[in-house]
Write the structure tokens for this entry.
Amino acid sequence: MILGVLGGGQLGRMLALAGYPLGMRFRFFDPADEVCVDDIAPRVRAAYEDVDALAQFADGVDVVTYEFENVPVDAVRALEARGARLLPPLVALDVSQDRLTEKQFLNGLGIATAPFAAVDSAEGLRSAVATLGLPAILKTRRMGYDGKGQAVLRSDADAEAAIAAFDGTPSILEGVVPFARELSVIAVRGLDGAVVCYPLVQNWHHDGILRVSRTPSPVVNALMQADAEYAARRVLEALDYVGVLTIEWFEHEGRLVANEIAPRVHNSGHWTIEGAATSQFENHLRAVTGLPLGLPQALGVWAMVNLVGTPPPLETLASLSGAHVHMYGKAPRTSRKVGHVTLCAVDEGYLDARLAELLHVVGIETGNTARA
Amino acid sequence: MILGVLGGGQLGRMLALAGYPLGMRFRFFDPADEVCVDDIAPRVRAAYEDVDALAQFADGVDVVTYEFENVPVDAVRALEARGARLLPPLVALDVSQDRLTEKQFLNGLGIATAPFAAVDSAEGLRSAVATLGLPAILKTRRMGYDGKGQAVLRSDADAEAAIAAFDGTPSILEGVVPFARELSVIAVRGLDGAVVCYPLVQNWHHDGILRVSRTPSPVVNALMQADAEYAARRVLEALDYVGVLTIEWFEHEGRLVANEIAPRVHNSGHWTIEGAATSQFENHLRAVTGLPLGLPQALGVWAMVNLVGTPPPLETLASLSGAHVHMYGKAPRTSRKVGHVTLCAVDEGYLDARLAELLHVVGIETGNTARA
């Protein structure tokens, strides 16, 4: 069984490391000079527009999957034209690559989102600000991640500046949800339609980048978990989805409001490598290859801290009790995720102590990751 | 950090899979046509006598380690002559490659073994049989593993046949220990001299091949664990050892009798990948690269079943609740280990039920792996 993976970043690397024990083989496609999978798997290095390279990549591959949602849809169509099977299906990319389509899709399934308005012109932006009020967030409809392609409009002056600078890029204005917490649910649907969901995770972001995840989310109750799972199931079934899909949520006044969908394995699920009966990576591979899904249960309590920029020395991280270190083989750069550390514990108190120690080592202030 | 590994079998494969998350890179050396690491890491394919190939292998490597104990000592000397650093140290190979030296070494540390006698001639064998009695096991001093190079002498006729057939290969005759159980302890010593030991594992063999391991061994008591750890510490310190070392034991009348030493990660420690706070593979890598050792504690209770010969379909194995499947990328062949499955559980009763199911699927009779 050979899997083709579009994208060779850290998510691809962790997919391969989960697949090797199952006897799977991997081939990656990525145009970048250096990528995280280079040490561990063969890669076709070419542009997504290079149809010959795509054909070479797809030759002999049993199934093609992807590790980032901004895969050019034309490349996928070229692969499908050559008989390659893509899972998760193309429609999931169509929906998730466009913030407007995504929100309309969610609302159509009865899943709440922040209020929003499409913005295609300076006048449209003025009108959207008038409707939604301030603060609000102006986002490009396409190609944003980790806080890129976004601007927060807090004041009338911010709004006027954004209106004056608006360059016609198809965009969306979103009302700000005054959330109590950010959560995410990772769900998997098998080729046979079976669905399993991991426990809700609580997430802390800084500068638009995920810094800390923790599960089971300390005060999530069973009803909120059930709500998240019910919504995830509706999304998966509406897309006839196969593989892992993540929904990020705001919790507002005790209810879940969907922020966005990621049709892939997700940073907030890295704890599942050691912390769940089956990792998100293995379950994605099981799904797209038609194997039965594995159990998603958490074993103990877990926290995950991203290493962003220049990480502490490996010696320091390895000396932390109960820490599982994951480096991605990337050169350090400002705001770049170069690895993560997962902490395991049998109770919350012990986890709190270990997490405080890790956050100190990583240089993150503890105030914003205290238990809610 | 680049590690050179002599041997590219499944133990090497699992070392690499444990090292990638730590940001380590690997280069293997193995003369075989196809080896388990070929999909996942670069390999130098050459004979151990090929000094140029060894030099190419060692070039730019930070440390050289090995995944099997029958590494030709001359190859190691050639590597060391070129400045390569070998860990575990050469003396560990010297001791463990020769069954006579090994037993003398253990006895010299006050660690009990089966009674034994060196055998170098037909007359010597006759005299050894007279001294030790029957049954006894005739083993070559070198190059035996998984029951190869061994003959059990049960009767006078067996002994006479062996005496007549004796070809002068340096050998050892061992008295048979009428053991109640077979156990093993996996111990690790860091570059700084720190030692950690995993819980004793109970092992079941068939035709000389390990079939099932289980931990924590159901009726091992704290004293026996302490005895095993004390012995392991003496062995590690006597060899100024760095890395993972395994001691296999017989339990006889409530006491531990050493069977053999393996200066490497071990099949009976595969459960540690999912079952311990730090796996044997990661701890070996931590040791030989000078990182602090990780915790060896078991999380829950665990069993491991080897897949020998033609394995059941992956679909079947993946459908077993709580099963972690590890395939080595090997073509099936009689008596060949092609993978293993680890089962996790929170209590013995649940583990018993899951293990019975797995053994049925694998086609192993359950009688000889019942709880002792």
About this structure: Chain B touches chain A through 33 residues (CB under 8 Å). The CA atoms of residues 99 and 141 of chain B lie 5 Å apart. The first helix of chain B runs from residue 10 to 19.
